[in-house]
Amino acid sequence: MVPKTDHPAPPAGGPGTADAAAIRLGIHETPDLANDVIARAGARVEDFVLVPYDVRDPFRQLRAGQVDVMLVKFGPRENDIAVGSPVGFDARAVLVAADHPLASRDAVSVEEAASYDAFERPEGFPASVWDLIVPPRTPAGTPIRRVHTLTTIEALVRTLTTTRAVHLSFRSVEAALPPQVRAVPLSDLPSAPIALAWPNGAVLPARVRAFIRAAEADAAGAPTSS
Known about the structure:
Elements: E1 23-27, H1 32-40, E2 48-52, H2 60-63, E3 69-73, E4 81-90, E5 92-97, H3 110-113, E6 118-119, H4 127-133, E7 146-148, H5 153-162, E8 167-170, E9 181-185, E10 192-199, H6 206-220
Parallel strand pairs: 1-2, 1-3, 6-7
Antiparallel strand pairs: 3-10, 4-10, 5-8, 5-9
């Protein structure tokens, strides 16, 4: 469950108005998820600046005031970070090299993926969230060998294409992958809830509050996703 944190009610009118400063939105790698959340909230993509964050220190820009709000998954529990209600879901996938034994499959079980070495938690990334992204064990109890170092997408691609490693990840990253890496759907890990996060106790600009409220309201009225 994603923890719910109250935030101020937005002013009248929609988010992302043309005369307001752009909302700085923290994202991980690909803009696809963010653009979808923005569109469903009734906002305009051009009224946002998308700022990629580093998995080795995902909250640095938010804490430094360099972004207004960021997209997070699995509701990280940080004392100084407020996390809202889910605004969407991201289906799971396993990333493998194009010549990997699992690459030609339409879908893969996490039990099968556990036969190959996976990636350990990046330093600075919340351990409780990483255990949901790359569980220490499969649902059947098979240990997942988290041995490879995860830093940048370039380094990830290099490891995947020079070893038989796998990375338990998300379907949304597929757009950021080069041709030599495939994202194969995982059939037995639930989709990750996506939420917006901001500095706990911060007085957010009206346009940011409006965006959060609109994104959460849209998700609340949408059909439940697995």
